[in-house]
Amino acid sequence: MEYVIVDGEVLDRTVAKVDIEDRGYQFGDGVYEVIRIYNGKMFTGKEHLNRLVESAGKIRMKLPFSPEELESKMEELISKNELDTGIVYMQFTRGTSPRNHVFPAGDVAPTFVAYTRKVARPVESMEKGVRTILDEDIRWLRCDIKSLNLLGNLLSKQKAAEAGCFEAILHRGETVTEGSHSNISIVKDGVIITHQADNFILNGITRQKVLEICSNESIAFEERAFTLDELSSADEVFSSGTTVEVMPIVEVDGKPVGNGEPGPVTRNLQNLFKGEIERQCGNL
Ligand code: PDD
Fold first, then answer.
1. Domains of the chain and CATH, by start
2. How far is CA 190 from the centre of its chain?
């Protein structure tokens, strides 16, 4: 049996139900998180749960559970589903009420849903590197919120998939922002450059962990917007995200990055990041 959580209750997935007028279903009016599980343990769980509370606050939604309560519910779900390597997905919507753009009046409770899924580490892609395309970033101006509204992301990711690529690197005019489902960094002369955490990108937990590792290891980095020209002349490019960890990018829009192989700075970060996973969750 596969267990899920609906409104705080652990249920058999086949009997779990959400109303057709749930505001997440109708408007994408909600927020979500994806947390990586290694050896049955959450990696950077607290950071993800704190960001969930922050995202909810930014859309004026108050969550009925504290991060600590959510953490123990997620632990229960992971253990009931006997998950070893995978993800836990959770989302809160502004609840169920007759369709109306205005927030529901009174104390309509948010709908809370969570489930787990087995997801292997993408070891082969991490070893060889992946191909990407470029795409104009057509999303709204609050990409810092991990909202359920992902249409802009989906259209770009679909374009990438149809081109046989792993990711679409998004840009607003000349400025690179992030990927359709990951953050993007470049390496030039040994310095890592990644877009600053503002309203144009999701401040990835993986991105933050990578920068923390850089600080601890005295690896130079800059948090600033970089251009398409800087991207095309970068020595190395990598993507970072919960499911993909640190992923070398070896091609952008048909052009090789550097010599077309994962570079040494990215390799070093991959190893340091793996070390951090093992420190939190045990040997991989
Ligand atoms: N995506 N930017 C975007 C647009 C993302 O969707 C994600 C993650 C990231 C990386 O964030 P983090 O390191 O916290 O996972 C950056 C998740 C995994 C998803 O939607 O499936």
1. 3-118 (3.30.470.10), 123-281 (3.20.10.10)
2. 26
Q: Report the distance separating Cα 181 and Cα 123, nearest Å.
A: 18
pLDDT tens string 58-117: 999 999 999 999 999 999 999 999 999 999 999 999 999 999 999 999 889 999 999 999
- pLDDT tens per residue across span 189-236: 999 999 999 999 999 999 999 999 999 999 999 999 999 999 999 999
Confirm whether 178 is a catalytic residue: yes
The single residue of 33, 167, 178, 276 carrying the catalytic annotation is: 178
Q: Are strands 86-93 and 30-38 parallel, antiparallel or unpaired?
A: antiparallel
Using CA atoms in the order 226, 230, 235, 236, what is the torsion angle rounded to 10 degrees?
Answer: 40
The answer, yes or no, to whether any atom of ligand 1 lies below 6 A from the CB of 185, is: no
